[in-house]
Amino acid sequence: MKRRVANALEISVALGAAVMGLGALAAASFGEAWLRLAGFAFLAVGSVTAAILRWRGEREGLDQPAVAELEAARTRLGKEDYAGAAAAASRSAKSARTPRTRNAALITLAWAALEQGYPARAKAALDGIVPSHAIDLYCLAAVEAARGRLEQAIEALEVARTARILTCDGAKLFVDCCARLHGVDHAVTAALQTIDVLGIENCKVVAKAAADAGAHFSAATLAAAIRGKVSLLPLTKGAHAT
């Protein structure tokens, strides 16, 4: 979806620049000499943008075999065929012609390796992602947690939370890592920080675990936050109904 929007914008830029360039050259023919340079500049922008689009299209066309392998890897991963997923993802990464496909294949390879019980292999796959900011933060956190590097896992999930891209599964891992590294009180704090993503039912589980562990104040604090969220639900439904 994002790629289609970006392509549409680039096509608009190319066409717009070409039209403006031709218009400027036409105006220059009526004596506005300074518009000639502007016209050539706009035409240059249009030509460069069009060339980029052609180059990208050619690369994405060549990437189809790698995309097919990637889809096969994801399907096998979903069916818990982790060895098959790893093999397909590896082939996809090796044959990929675009960074997007290669990075997606490496992330899939990391998940497959992690599910097979090879966190070091999973981390090696993630280390191959370029640029580094294209990494899946939840996958990175899961790998770091499996390697016993809980602080690094928490840091990755904090980045995801700050960027508002933390998923429910990521929030669960966040709470779990905080509990393992810092104890139940920190786990409750993590649940409070991610309550909207974590969800009420998962928060109830955390509150019960805190109460069972004797952290009654933290459990009560989370329970109060849960009640506050629940009390807003009828109002939200009513607002949508109107």
In short:
This protein is mainly α and 242 residues long. The chain has helices at residues 2-28, 34-62, 64-78, 82-95, 99-115, 119-127, 137-146, 150-162, 168-182, 184-193, 195-198, 200-212, 216-241.
From the structure above, extract its key features.
single chain, 242 residues, mainly alpha, Serine Threonine Protein Phosphatase 5, Tetratricopeptide repeat, 3 domains, 13 helices, 83% helix, 0% strand, disordered C terminus
Helix percent reads over 70%
Query: What is the count of helical runs?
Result: 13
Percentage of β-strand residues: under 5%
- Report the CATH topology name of the largest domain: Serine Threonine Protein Phosphatase 5, Tetratricopeptide repeat
Unreliable stretches covering 5 or more consecutive residues: 5-28, 30-55, 235-242
What is the CATH class of the largest domain?
Mainly Alpha
Q: What is the string of SSEs from the N terminus onward?
A: HHHHHHHHHHHHH
Tell how many strands the DSSP assignment holds. 0
Distance between the termini: 31 Å
Overall CATH architecture of the largest domain: Alpha Horseshoe
By helix and strand content, what is the structural category? Answer: mainly alpha
- Can you give the mean pLDDT? 81
